[in-house]
Amino acid sequence: MQHASPTPGSSRSAVKSLDTRSILGAALDGQELSSAGALHLLGLTREDDLHRLREAADELQKQQTGDTVPFETGCSLYITNLCELSPTLYPYSRQPGDAGTCTLSIDEIDACLERTNYRQTERLYVSGGGFWPFLQIPGLEAPNLLKTYTRLCGYIREKAPQIQLTGFSPDEVEFLCIVADRDERYVLEMLIDHGLQTLGGNGVEILHDRVRQAISPKKASVNRWLEIAATAHRLGLPVIARMEAGPLETLQQRVSHMQQLRRFQQEHPGAFSEIIPQMWTKAPPQAALPVPGLPNCKPQDRLKLSAVLRLFLGEAIPRQTVCWQPKDEAEAQEALQWGANSLCSTDALAYHVFLSGSRPTEEYTASDFHRLITETGRIPQPASYPPSKKS
Description:
Elements: H1 20-28, H2 35-42, H3 47-65, E1 68-78, H4 106-118, E2 123-127, H5 145-159, E3 164-167, H6 170-180, H7 184-193, E4 198-199, H8 209-215, H9 222-234, E5 239-245, H10 251-267, E6 272-279, H11 299-313, E7 321-324, H12 329-335, E8 342-349, H13 351-354, H14 366-374, E9 379-382
Parallel strand pairs: 1-2, 1-8, 1-9, 2-3, 3-4, 5-6, 7-8
């Protein structure tokens, strides 16, 4: 059955029925998926219902973005694992004096950038790694944290001018504001002037204050996170919307995250350039306050989340990107049948500090992406980005 595409700018009534067939059919007919409908879909477990969900997300994705799949090779560069925001969700955070503390030197950063050049990386995600006010990069000394970050951006832009420089997050910008005693406009303008092209959204977890308090009480509140994203949008800096789901939040709180993103994008059209969903399949052992009785997430839950994001957010944020590593190749391909429409292969540089396991030995090229995407019946297309304001 061919469903009519929604008319741009027209008002849509929310889907109110909690019958799976009715919810999916109405969403395909252009009605806005309600929060109750999204919650119902996230709770589906029957195989026939999941099959219907996948088919609906796949069809809606094709209606919204067609058969073309943008792709890129990406790397994440973490500078330090020192972090003042203890406790956090991540297993690599350290305090001074702890075993395993690490801060990359400029020579180590050079080696990482050389690797991005030979593997023809399109995008580099750069982050302070932790939240540490006294960060000094050996060989790139600066008088304060803001200068350290801006000099780092300028250094990367000079060494790798071809790369899309994506970095930091509203949380990191808020930390910089506090440390530098400046407002977010000043901080963001400094980063943009030194070559930052996209605000990364790393570490957003779930935009629900109760969850954020449990994960890391010192992180920015939801309202503050969105204020900084709004300022970035006014300055012409795109923001990546992330969602890091897992066993530490309820399904209702996941829906709250989606609500926050949709409302924000409707109020600030085009602010979020894409959404990247990720999911912890089990709670990290050091996580502060796991929700009692909440089961670990299953791999299937990741695909279900992608599908519901497409139905709930696809019109507001059409590009949904799967960031994956070589061992997850099959899952990345499958996600393209569950609402995702963009691929980014990523490898964390300085992985030996921040991630467990060994470095992937397989380097993905354009021909590999062409193979992965065409095997799903889609059309591969290299991702394109606007030039840096400071080349």
